[in-house]
Protein backbone atom coordinates (compact mmCIF):
# COMPACT_ATOMS: atom_id res chain seq x y z
CA UNK A 1 0.00 0.00 0.00
CA UNK A 2 1.20 3.50 -0.85
CA UNK A 3 -0.55 6.80 -0.30
CA UNK A 4 -0.02 10.50 0.34
CA UNK A 5 -2.16 12.48 2.76
CA UNK A 6 -2.29 15.94 4.24
CA UNK A 7 -1.22 16.04 7.86
CA UNK A 8 -4.35 17.97 8.98
CA UNK A 9 -6.67 15.38 7.38
CA UNK A 10 -5.16 12.25 8.89
CA UNK A 11 -4.58 13.98 12.24
CA UNK A 12 -8.27 14.88 12.49
CA UNK A 13 -9.28 11.29 11.66
CA UNK A 14 -6.88 9.80 14.20
CA UNK A 15 -8.07 12.18 16.94
CA UNK A 16 -11.63 11.07 16.24
CA UNK A 17 -10.98 7.36 16.84
CA UNK A 18 -8.09 7.38 19.33
CA UNK A 19 -10.36 7.31 22.39
CA UNK A 20 -11.20 3.67 21.67
CA UNK A 21 -7.55 2.57 21.77
CA UNK A 22 -6.62 1.43 25.28
CA UNK A 23 -3.06 1.99 26.47
CA UNK A 24 -2.90 -1.52 27.92
CA UNK A 25 -4.16 -4.29 25.69
CA UNK A 26 -4.57 -8.04 26.03
CA UNK A 27 -4.13 -8.32 22.25
CA UNK A 28 -1.24 -6.39 20.64
CA UNK A 29 -3.25 -5.59 17.51
CA UNK A 30 -5.80 -3.61 19.56
CA UNK A 31 -3.17 -0.90 20.13
CA UNK A 32 -3.23 -0.31 16.36
CA UNK A 33 -5.56 1.37 13.91
CA UNK A 34 -6.55 -0.33 10.70
CA UNK A 35 -5.80 1.86 7.66
CA UNK A 36 -7.41 0.91 4.35
CA UNK A 37 -6.64 2.84 1.18
CA UNK A 38 -9.15 2.76 -1.67
CA UNK A 39 -10.84 5.23 -4.06
CA UNK A 40 -8.83 8.31 -3.07
CA UNK A 41 -9.63 8.04 0.61
CA UNK A 42 -8.35 6.35 3.75
CA UNK A 43 -10.69 4.40 6.00
CA UNK A 44 -9.39 4.38 9.56
CA UNK A 45 -10.79 1.93 12.13
CA UNK A 46 -10.17 1.53 15.85
CA UNK A 47 -11.71 -1.09 18.15
CA UNK A 48 -11.42 -2.63 21.62
CA UNK A 49 -13.66 -5.61 20.69
CA UNK A 50 -16.65 -3.91 22.37
CA UNK A 51 -16.66 -0.54 20.59
CA UNK A 52 -15.66 0.26 17.02
CA UNK A 53 -15.16 3.65 15.36
CA UNK A 54 -14.73 4.02 11.59
CA UNK A 55 -13.90 7.32 9.91
CA UNK A 56 -12.49 8.54 6.59
CA UNK A 57 -10.12 11.16 5.24
CA UNK A 58 -9.13 12.18 1.68
CA UNK A 59 -5.82 10.88 0.32
CA UNK A 60 -3.99 10.14 -2.92
CA UNK A 61 -3.91 6.34 -3.17
CA UNK A 62 -0.99 5.18 -5.31
CA UNK A 63 -1.34 1.48 -4.44
CA UNK A 64 -4.47 0.22 -2.64
CA UNK A 65 -4.09 -1.95 0.44
CA UNK A 66 -4.61 -2.19 4.18
CA UNK A 67 -2.36 -2.36 7.22
CA UNK A 68 -2.54 -2.14 11.04
CA UNK A 69 -0.29 0.62 12.42
CA UNK A 70 0.46 1.60 16.07
CA UNK A 71 -2.24 4.17 16.82
CA UNK A 72 -0.67 6.46 19.41
CA UNK A 73 2.76 6.50 17.75
CA UNK A 74 1.19 7.48 14.44
CA UNK A 75 -0.90 10.15 16.17
CA UNK A 76 2.15 11.60 17.95
CA UNK A 77 4.13 11.68 14.69
CA UNK A 78 1.32 13.57 12.95
CA UNK A 79 1.04 16.00 15.84
CA UNK A 80 4.74 16.75 15.66
CA UNK A 81 4.77 17.65 11.97
CA UNK A 82 4.13 21.18 10.60
CA UNK A 83 0.50 22.17 9.97
CA UNK A 84 0.83 22.20 6.18
CA UNK A 85 2.89 19.00 5.94
CA UNK A 86 2.16 16.22 3.48
CA UNK A 87 2.82 12.65 4.62
CA UNK A 88 3.81 9.87 2.23
CA UNK A 89 3.28 6.32 3.46
CA UNK A 90 4.76 3.13 1.98
CA UNK A 91 4.07 -0.36 3.30
CA UNK A 92 6.95 -2.83 3.09
CA UNK A 93 6.40 -6.32 4.53
CA UNK A 94 5.87 -5.84 8.28
CA UNK A 95 6.94 -2.20 8.30
CA UNK A 96 5.24 1.06 7.44
CA UNK A 97 7.54 3.89 6.35
CA UNK A 98 6.45 7.51 6.65
CA UNK A 99 8.13 10.50 5.06
CA UNK A 100 7.34 14.18 5.34
CA UNK A 101 9.91 16.65 4.07
CA UNK A 102 13.20 15.61 5.67
CA UNK A 103 11.49 13.63 8.44
CA UNK A 104 11.39 9.85 8.13
CA UNK A 105 9.81 7.25 10.40
CA UNK A 106 9.60 3.46 10.30
CA UNK A 107 6.79 1.81 12.28
CA UNK A 108 6.35 -1.89 13.00
CA UNK A 109 3.00 -2.91 11.51
CA UNK A 110 0.74 -5.94 11.63
CA UNK A 111 -1.22 -7.76 8.96
CA UNK A 112 -4.74 -6.49 8.33
CA UNK A 113 -5.80 -10.14 8.03
CA UNK A 114 -5.57 -10.40 11.81
CA UNK A 115 -7.77 -7.39 12.47
CA UNK A 116 -10.68 -8.30 14.84
CA UNK A 117 -13.93 -6.98 13.38
CA UNK A 118 -17.11 -6.73 15.46
CA UNK A 119 -19.83 -9.28 14.86
CA UNK A 120 -22.19 -8.44 12.03
CA UNK A 121 -24.83 -5.99 13.24
CA UNK A 122 -28.29 -7.53 13.00
CA UNK A 123 -31.18 -5.61 11.53
CA UNK A 124 -33.27 -3.85 14.14
CA UNK A 125 -35.00 -0.57 14.90
CA UNK A 126 -33.87 2.35 12.75
CA UNK A 127 -34.58 5.88 13.95
CA UNK A 128 -33.43 9.39 13.19
CA UNK A 129 -33.16 12.35 15.55
CA UNK A 130 -31.15 15.53 15.79
CA UNK A 131 -27.59 15.39 17.06
CA UNK A 132 -28.27 18.15 19.60
CA UNK A 133 -31.15 16.21 21.18
CA UNK A 134 -29.04 13.10 21.74
CA UNK A 135 -26.12 15.14 23.10
CA UNK A 136 -28.38 17.00 25.51
CA UNK A 137 -29.88 13.75 26.82
CA UNK A 138 -26.43 12.25 27.42
CA UNK A 139 -25.02 15.43 28.99
CA UNK A 140 -27.86 15.44 31.50
CA UNK A 141 -27.54 11.82 32.57
CA UNK A 142 -24.19 10.14 31.83
CA UNK A 143 -22.45 11.33 35.03
CA UNK A 144 -24.68 9.03 37.15
CA UNK A 145 -23.43 5.79 35.53
CA UNK A 146 -21.66 3.33 37.81
CA UNK A 147 -17.95 2.67 37.37
CA UNK A 148 -16.74 -0.94 37.61
CA UNK A 149 -19.73 -1.99 39.72
CA UNK A 150 -20.22 -5.72 40.23
CA UNK A 151 -23.78 -5.12 39.07
CA UNK A 152 -22.54 -4.89 35.49
CA UNK A 153 -25.86 -3.58 34.15
CA UNK A 154 -25.27 -0.34 36.09
CA UNK A 155 -21.99 0.31 34.23
CA UNK A 156 -23.86 1.85 31.36
CA UNK A 157 -26.80 4.01 30.38
CA UNK A 158 -30.32 2.88 29.61
CA UNK A 159 -31.81 4.20 26.36
CA UNK A 160 -35.58 3.83 26.03
CA UNK A 161 -37.25 4.43 22.67
CA UNK A 162 -40.98 5.07 22.43
CA UNK A 163 -43.08 6.33 19.56
CA UNK A 164 -43.25 9.83 21.04
CA UNK A 165 -40.03 10.19 23.04
CA UNK A 166 -36.46 9.11 23.77
CA UNK A 167 -35.45 8.64 27.39
CA UNK A 168 -32.00 8.17 28.94
CA UNK A 169 -31.50 6.85 32.49
CA UNK A 170 -28.33 6.28 34.51
CA UNK A 171 -27.84 5.14 38.11
CA UNK A 172 -25.06 3.82 40.31
CA UNK A 173 -27.39 2.68 43.09
CA UNK A 174 -26.89 5.86 45.14
CA UNK A 175 -28.26 8.41 42.68
CA UNK A 176 -30.27 8.46 39.48
CA UNK A 177 -30.45 10.79 36.49
CA UNK A 178 -33.34 10.69 34.02
CA UNK A 179 -33.91 12.89 31.00
CA UNK A 180 -36.22 12.57 28.03
CA UNK A 181 -37.04 14.46 24.88
CA UNK A 182 -40.23 14.46 22.78
CA UNK A 183 -39.57 13.09 19.30
CA UNK A 184 -41.65 11.28 16.71
CA UNK A 185 -40.26 7.80 16.06
CA UNK A 186 -41.54 5.20 13.64
CA UNK A 187 -41.36 2.24 15.99
CA UNK A 188 -44.07 -0.30 16.68
CA UNK A 189 -43.40 -0.95 20.38
CA UNK A 190 -41.17 0.47 23.12
CA UNK A 191 -37.54 -0.66 22.88
CA UNK A 192 -34.72 -0.29 25.37
CA UNK A 193 -31.01 -1.08 25.55
CA UNK A 194 -28.13 -0.63 28.01
CA UNK A 195 -25.18 1.09 26.34
CA UNK A 196 -21.75 0.52 28.00
CA UNK A 197 -20.05 3.30 29.92
CA UNK A 198 -17.09 3.64 27.56
CA UNK A 199 -19.35 3.94 24.52
CA UNK A 200 -21.38 6.68 26.22
CA UNK A 201 -18.21 8.53 27.23
CA UNK A 202 -17.00 8.47 23.62
CA UNK A 203 -20.38 9.59 22.31
CA UNK A 204 -20.38 12.57 24.67
CA UNK A 205 -16.95 13.50 23.30
CA UNK A 206 -17.91 13.05 19.64
CA UNK A 207 -21.38 14.57 19.50
CA UNK A 208 -21.79 18.23 18.64
CA UNK A 209 -24.67 20.61 19.12
CA UNK A 210 -25.82 20.79 15.51
CA UNK A 211 -29.41 20.28 14.43
CA UNK A 212 -28.29 17.79 11.76
CA UNK A 213 -30.15 14.50 11.84
CA UNK A 214 -28.28 11.33 12.76
CA UNK A 215 -29.36 7.74 12.23
CA UNK A 216 -29.41 5.05 14.92
CA UNK A 217 -29.77 1.30 14.39
CA UNK A 218 -30.66 -0.68 17.51
CA UNK A 219 -30.60 -4.49 17.49
CA UNK A 220 -30.59 -7.05 20.29
CA UNK A 221 -26.79 -6.92 20.63
CA UNK A 222 -25.55 -3.71 19.02
CA UNK A 223 -26.13 0.00 18.69
CA UNK A 224 -24.84 1.70 15.55
CA UNK A 225 -24.91 5.46 15.01
CA UNK A 226 -24.06 7.19 11.76
CA UNK A 227 -22.57 10.62 12.39
CA UNK A 228 -21.04 13.00 9.87
CA UNK A 229 -18.04 11.08 8.50
CA UNK A 230 -18.09 8.56 11.35
CA UNK A 231 -19.69 5.16 11.99
CA UNK A 232 -20.01 4.35 15.69
CA UNK A 233 -20.80 0.74 16.67
CA UNK A 234 -20.95 -0.70 20.17
CA UNK A 235 -22.02 -3.95 21.76
CA UNK A 236 -24.82 -3.65 24.32
CA UNK A 237 -24.84 -4.83 27.92
CA UNK A 238 -26.91 -7.99 28.26
CA UNK A 239 -28.77 -7.49 31.51
CA UNK A 240 -31.93 -6.23 33.17
CA UNK A 241 -31.88 -2.58 34.23
CA UNK A 242 -33.48 -1.88 37.64
CA UNK A 243 -37.05 -0.60 37.90
CA UNK A 244 -35.91 3.02 38.02
CA UNK A 245 -39.40 4.52 38.07
CA UNK A 246 -40.02 2.93 41.47
CA UNK A 247 -37.23 4.91 43.16
CA UNK A 248 -38.37 8.34 41.91
CA UNK A 249 -40.18 10.04 44.85
CA UNK A 250 -43.89 10.51 44.22
CA UNK A 251 -45.21 13.91 45.30
CA UNK A 252 -42.77 14.72 48.13
CA UNK A 253 -44.37 16.97 50.73
CA UNK A 254 -41.61 19.53 51.30
CA UNK A 255 -40.29 21.84 48.61
CA UNK A 256 -37.25 24.10 48.57
CA UNK A 257 -36.69 26.57 45.73
CA UNK A 258 -33.31 28.27 45.30
CA UNK A 259 -30.94 29.90 42.84
CA UNK A 260 -28.86 27.16 41.26
CA UNK A 261 -25.50 28.94 41.00
CA UNK A 262 -25.77 30.29 44.55
CA UNK A 263 -26.29 26.79 45.97
CA UNK A 264 -23.54 25.32 43.75
CA UNK A 265 -21.02 27.86 45.00
CA UNK A 266 -22.01 27.27 48.63
CA UNK A 267 -21.80 23.49 48.22
CA UNK A 268 -18.36 23.79 46.59
CA UNK A 269 -17.10 25.92 49.49
CA UNK A 270 -18.52 23.57 52.10
CA UNK A 271 -17.14 20.49 50.32
CA UNK A 272 -13.57 21.68 50.91
CA UNK A 273 -13.74 20.47 54.52
CA UNK A 274 -16.02 17.46 54.02
CA UNK A 275 -14.85 13.91 54.66
CA UNK A 276 -12.63 12.98 51.70
CA UNK A 277 -13.94 9.40 51.58
CA UNK A 278 -17.68 9.99 51.92
CA UNK A 279 -18.08 13.67 50.94
CA UNK A 280 -21.08 14.16 53.19
CA UNK A 281 -22.77 17.52 53.73
CA UNK A 282 -25.65 18.24 56.12
CA UNK A 283 -28.55 20.38 54.90
CA UNK A 284 -30.55 22.08 57.63
CA UNK A 285 -33.76 23.65 56.39
CA UNK A 286 -35.82 26.23 58.27
CA UNK A 287 -38.04 29.16 57.27
CA UNK A 288 -36.40 30.78 54.21
CA UNK A 289 -32.97 29.49 55.26
CA UNK A 290 -30.67 26.65 54.20
CA UNK A 291 -27.65 25.94 56.39
CA UNK A 292 -24.87 23.74 54.94
CA UNK A 293 -22.45 21.98 57.28
CA UNK A 294 -19.52 19.64 56.72
CA UNK A 295 -16.68 18.24 58.81
CA UNK A 296 -13.82 15.78 58.39
CA UNK A 297 -11.75 13.40 60.49
CA UNK A 298 -9.33 16.22 61.43
CA UNK A 299 -12.28 17.93 63.16
CA UNK A 300 -12.23 20.74 60.63
CA UNK A 301 -15.62 22.25 59.95
CA UNK A 302 -17.35 24.36 57.31
CA UNK A 303 -20.69 26.11 57.57
CA UNK A 304 -22.60 28.27 55.11
CA UNK A 305 -26.05 29.84 55.17
CA UNK A 306 -28.16 30.78 52.14
CA UNK A 307 -31.54 32.38 51.77
CA UNK A 308 -33.99 30.06 50.00
CA UNK A 309 -37.72 29.67 49.49
CA UNK A 310 -38.86 27.11 52.09
CA UNK A 311 -42.01 27.31 54.22
CA UNK A 312 -42.35 23.84 55.73
CA UNK A 313 -41.28 22.40 59.07
CA UNK A 314 -37.54 22.48 59.91
CA UNK A 315 -35.61 19.36 58.97
CA UNK A 316 -32.07 18.04 58.52
CA UNK A 317 -30.80 15.64 55.89
CA UNK A 318 -27.37 14.48 54.69
CA UNK A 319 -26.24 14.03 51.08
CA UNK A 320 -23.05 13.27 49.18
CA UNK A 321 -22.01 16.74 48.06
CA UNK A 322 -20.60 15.50 44.73
CA UNK A 323 -23.94 13.97 43.80
CA UNK A 324 -25.71 17.27 44.43
CA UNK A 325 -23.11 19.22 42.45
CA UNK A 326 -23.33 16.81 39.49
CA UNK A 327 -27.12 17.11 39.34
CA UNK A 328 -27.05 20.90 39.59
CA UNK A 329 -24.30 21.07 36.97
CA UNK A 330 -26.47 19.18 34.48
CA UNK A 331 -29.26 21.76 34.68
CA UNK A 332 -29.65 24.82 32.46
CA UNK A 333 -32.13 27.00 34.34
CA UNK A 334 -31.26 29.60 36.97
CA UNK A 335 -33.70 28.21 39.55
CA UNK A 336 -34.14 24.67 40.82
CA UNK A 337 -36.31 22.74 43.25
CA UNK A 338 -35.37 20.16 45.90
CA UNK A 339 -38.32 18.03 46.96
CA UNK A 340 -38.14 16.00 50.17
CA UNK A 341 -40.43 13.68 52.13
CA UNK A 342 -38.27 13.36 55.25
CA UNK A 343 -34.72 12.98 56.59
CA UNK A 344 -34.57 9.31 55.58
CA UNK A 345 -36.06 9.68 52.09
CA UNK A 346 -34.46 10.40 48.74
CA UNK A 347 -34.23 13.94 47.46
CA UNK A 348 -35.69 14.84 44.06
CA UNK A 349 -33.98 17.68 42.19
CA UNK A 350 -35.56 19.34 39.17
CA UNK A 351 -34.84 22.51 37.23
CA UNK A 352 -37.63 25.07 37.29
CA UNK A 353 -39.28 25.09 33.88
CA UNK A 354 -37.82 21.72 32.86
CA UNK A 355 -40.27 18.83 33.13
CA UNK A 356 -38.08 16.47 31.09
CA UNK A 357 -35.23 15.84 33.56
CA UNK A 358 -35.21 14.49 37.12
CA UNK A 359 -32.41 13.70 39.54
CA UNK A 360 -32.73 11.45 42.60
CA UNK A 361 -30.11 11.40 45.37
CA UNK A 362 -30.15 8.93 48.28
CA UNK A 363 -29.64 10.42 51.76
CA UNK A 364 -26.57 9.81 53.94
CA UNK A 365 -26.34 9.31 57.68
CA UNK A 366 -23.93 11.88 59.12
Question: Would you spell out the secondary-structure blueprint of this structure?
Answer:
Elements (H helix, E strand, L loop, with lengths): L1 E5 H11 L14 E7 L2 E7 L3 E8 L1 E4 L1 E6 H10 L5 E7 L2 E6 L2 E6 L16 E6 H9 L16 E7 L2 E7 L3 E8 L8 E6 H10 L6 E6 L3 E6 L2 E6 L18 E6 H12 L8 E7 L2 E7 L5 E7 L7 E6 H9 L5 E6 L6 E5 L5 E5 L5
Antiparallel strand pairs: 1-5, 1-7, 2-3, 2-6, 3-4, 4-17, 7-8, 8-9, 10-15, 11-12, 11-14, 12-13, 13-25, 15-16, 16-17, 18-23, 19-20, 19-22, 20-21, 23-24, 24-25
How would you sum up this structure in a few lines?
The chain is built from six helices and 25 strands.
Describe the structure.
This protein has 366 residues and is an alpha+beta fold. Helix content is 17%, strand content 43%. The chain starts with a strand and ends in a 5-residue tail after the last strand. The protein has six helices and 25 strands. The mean pLDDT is 94. 35% of the residues are buried. The chain has helices at residues 7-17, 71-80, 131-139, 197-206, 260-271, 321-329; strands spanning 2-6, 32-38, 41-47, 51-58, 60-63, 65-70, 86-92, 95-100, 103-108, 125-130, 156-162, 165-171, 175-182, 191-196, 213-218, 222-227, 230-235, 254-259, 280-286, 289-295, 301-307, 315-320, 335-340, 347-351, 357-361. It is elongated. The strands form four sheets. An eight-stranded antiparallel beta sheet has the order 6-2-3-4-17-16-15-10. It folds into three domains: 2-114, DNA Polymerase III, subunit A, domain 2 (DNA Polymerase III, Chain A, domain 2, Roll), CATH 3.10.150; 125-245, Roll (DNA Polymerase III, Chain A, domain 2), CATH 3.10.150.10; 248-361, DNA Polymerase III, Chain A, domain 2 (Roll), CATH 3.10.150.
Amino acid sequence: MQFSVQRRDILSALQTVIGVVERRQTMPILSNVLIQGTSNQLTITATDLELELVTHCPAVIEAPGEIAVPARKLLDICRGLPDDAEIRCVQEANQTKLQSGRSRFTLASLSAQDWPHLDEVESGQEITLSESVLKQLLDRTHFAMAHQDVRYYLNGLLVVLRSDRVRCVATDGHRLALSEAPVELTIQEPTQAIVPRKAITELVRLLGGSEAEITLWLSNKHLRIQLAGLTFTTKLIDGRFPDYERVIPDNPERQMHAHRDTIRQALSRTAILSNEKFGGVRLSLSQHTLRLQAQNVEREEAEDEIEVSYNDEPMEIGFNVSYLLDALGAMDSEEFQLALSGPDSSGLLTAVGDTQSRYVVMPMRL
